[in-house]
Amino acid sequence: MTRLVLASSSPRRLELLGRLGVTPDRTISPDIDETPHKAELPRDYVLRMALEKAVAVKRAADEILIAGDTTVAVGRRILGQAADAAEQRKFLELISGRRHHVMTSVCVIAADGKPRTKLSDSIVKFKRFETREIEAYIGSGEGDGKAGGYAIQGQAEAFVTWMSGSYSGIMGLPLYETRNLLISSGYPVA
After folding, report:
1. Beta strands in 30-188 (DSSP E)
2. Half-sphere exposure of 37 toward its Cβ, with a 13 Å CA cutoff?
3. What is the pLDDT along the chain (190 residues), one digit of tens a residue?
4. Span between the terminal Cα atoms of the chain, in Å
5. Could you list the active site residues?
6. What pTM value is reported for the model?
7. How many domains would you assign to the chain?
8. Does a structural domain hold residue 189?
9. Which of 56, 61, 69, 132 reaches 20 to 30 Å from 33, CA-CA?
10. Residue 147 near residue 95, CB atoms below 8 Å
11. What's the domain range around 111?
């Protein structure tokens, strides 16, 4: 029986895998430096992060490993996880009333040891925020530890005026790409 390792501490990724009927045999949080390289483009960054997370976790020969990374991008600017309320405020002010990209990369390493990676690139547009809305959202704590300073599956969803792409990808694990990567790696998915 093939075993699955989730290289993530994200409860959201675990929940999303469950939507595929998949339960990892073990989860482990990779310890890597997530600092973007100088002039690194958001697409390159998120692909590199998923791969680095995947290869940072040891796996047995009979295990398939899955890792992912999500970033929010405004143009060439990468908005990772806000370090504090002040940075989260800056992020929310920056994406207020504008379209931005939410990129999630998934990397699966199968028994052959070869990493396979897919990228989901979605676009989200929020309404123009009022200062009180930003402050209330920061106060809710919902965006803590989230790329771009928000979680689409919570209160922030009420501010979305338009989106294109993968909703599950915006949440942190694009199910279509993930399912296909698991199947092509030999993991049984219904």
Report:
1. 63-74, 77-79, 99-109, 115-126, 160-164
2. 9
3. 689 999 998 889 999 999 999 999 999 999 999 999 999 999 999 999 999 999 999 999 889 999 999 999 999 999 989 999 999 999 999 999 999 999 999 999 998 899 999 999 999 999 999 999 999 999 999 999 899 999 999 999 999 999 999 999 999 999 999 999 999 998 888 7
4. 15
5. 69
6. 0.93
7. 1
8. no
9. 61
10. no
11. 3-184
